[in-house]
Amino acid sequence: MSGHRIYSVAFAKVYPMYVQKAEKKGRTQEEVDQVILWLTGYTAAALKKHLEAGTSFEDFFNKAPAFNPKAELIKGVVCGVRVEEVEDPLMRKIRYLDKLVDELAKGKAMDRILRN
Q1: Residue 31 CA, distance from chain mean position
Q2: Please, what sign has the CA dihedral across residues 104, 106, 107, 111?
Q3: Can you give the pLDDT of all 116 residues of the chain as single tens digits?
Q4: Phi, psi of 10 (to 5 degrees)
Q5: Whole-prediction pTM value?
Q6: CA 86 from chain center: how many Å?
Q7: What per-residue string of b and e applies to 50-72 under the rule 16 or more CB within 10 Å gives b?
Q8: Domains of the chain (ranges plus CATH)?
């Protein structure tokens, strides 16, 4: 896949930033992990393996075992981009995760974040 530089960046390089953003607002690493697992279908052990292996964003999302169908309910703006209007499927998945972490950091209830 060509295009965006983020695709080749190791997920493990950005993961600590997701955690830091959430922790600054009183949330936990476990909650960040819960959001990632909900979105991708990975287990905690599989997430840990990808972080240790330095898996790229592209591979991390393309190899997700069960991308959550409720992800389509994620709407809104993140980094000035309306998530539901992102055309590139891989970039949309990345933006979904960005939006979920934003919602977590803004103090939304986990049930609402996970679209229950």
Answers
A1: 12
A2: negative
A3: 456 899 999 999 999 999 999 999 999 999 999 999 999 999 999 999 999 999 999 999 999 999 999 999 999 999 898 999 999 999 999 999 999 999 999 999 999 999 98
A4: -65, 130
A5: 0.94
A6: 15
A7: bbeeebbbbbbbeebeeebeebe
A8: 5-110 (1.10.8.290)
